[in-house]
Design brief:
Length: 341
């Protein structure tokens, strides 16, 4: 029996040959399927293998796909296809990861919201129960209940920093300061009657009105204007050529009566804050008792003082120094008055 142009034996042999051919064909198909499966698994393993670089993955996949002789166009097309597939798979994987993260965040947010809602609901229930209980409590008991909640009113907190309290205290201080200044300005505008003695070797007492805020220089100018009507020598005398001596102290022209009155300044023989005339503390009994008596201040020429400052009473006079305390004053007969420290 001939088969395929040659002798192949009898009919049984021909059947065996066909059977072998079918088995071979099936084996080849199985091998092709296995090869495709291996290639697919290799591509998957390349995607999962994150430690390998992109170029290495492309080269491995390209080597597995390009088996046998191929043209340049086929070579380039396969390489481009492999790169495109890898990029698509990477983009899909990134998108899936992002979607999973968003889903996880959304799930956590919903869970937190659900827990918060449950807590608020529980708190509302407790508050409702407390309100219901309070409806049946007397007013005093309610106040006592809430008095124990929060800060302890008995704890000292004044030393703790408090911005609102500090601002309030500062405003109060500024208000009190403004009120004090306004009050002192009103005091300076009050009138004051000064009894003085123009001294030219003898005393000539006069009275004049000034303001408490006036300086000694202003007072001397007004006194010169008053005295110049009687004493010709004062008509050509300037204010700087006159001196005012009170309680054995030569008062500076820049000092004000307000300063002496407010500070209750004392001189060597009496107070500087009284400008009326009372009993002479040096001539009346009880010299060891502090008195508020005052002597008439003297207005003299500076030239007269320069000529007679070594003679009593000018020898007792001293320049007023606000920083120098007056310890005591001497009364007539050498005795000392009370300590003025």
């Amino acid at each position: 029996m001939s088969y395929g142009g040659g002798y192949v034996g009898n009919g049984a042999d021909a059947m065996k040959i066909r059977k072998y051919e079918e088995q071979r064909k099936k084996a080849m198909e199985d091998a092709e399927k296995e090869k495709s499966a291996l290639a697919s698994e290799s591509a998957k393993s390349r995607i999962v293998n994150f430690s390998a670089g992109k170029s290495e993955v492309i080269e491995n996949a390209f080597k597995n796909e390009s088996v046998g002789l191929q043209t340049k166009a086929q070579f380039a097309e396969k390489r481009a296809n492999i790169e495109r597939e890898l990029e698509e798979e990477a983009a899909a994987r990134a998108k899936a990861t992002e979607a999973a993260e968003l889903k996880s965040k959304d799930r956590k947010r919903k869970k937190a919201k659900k827990e918060m809602t449950a807590k608020l609901s529980f708190a509302d229930d407790e508050l409702d129960e407390e309100n219901e209980d309070e409806c049946f409590l007397p007013a005093a008991k309610k106040a006592g209940k809430f008095a124990t909640v929060g800060k302890d009113p008995g704890v000292q907190t004044h030393f703790l920093p408090d911005k609102d309290r500090e601002m309030s205290e500062r405003d109060v201080r500024e208000k009190l300061k403004a009120e004090f200044i306004a009050q002192q300005e009103e005091i300076k505008k009050e009138k004051l009657e000064i009894t003085f003695s123009y001294w030219d070797g003898g005393g000539h007492r006069r009275k004049i009105e000034v303001l408490k805020g006036d300086t000694i220089g202003i007072f001397l100018g007004k006194a010169r204007e008053l005295l110049s009507k009687e004493f010709r020598e004062l008509r050509h005398e300037s204010t700087d050529g006159l001196m005012y001596i009170k309680e054995d102290l030569i008062l500076p022209h820049t000092a004000t009566f307000y300063d002496f009155i407010v500070n209750k300044v004392r001189g060597k023989s009496g107070p500087l804050f009284h400008f009326g005339v009372h009993d002479d503390v040096r001539l009346k009994g009880g010299a060891n008792i502090e008195k508020e008596d005052s002597h008439a201040g003297k207005i003299i020429h500076r030239t007269w003082y320069d000529k007679n400052k070594h003679i009593f009473p000018a020898s007792r006079w001293e320049q007023y120094d606000p920083l120098r305390p007056v310890e005591s004053y001497t009364i007539y007969g050498g005795e000392k008055g009370p300590d003025r420290r």
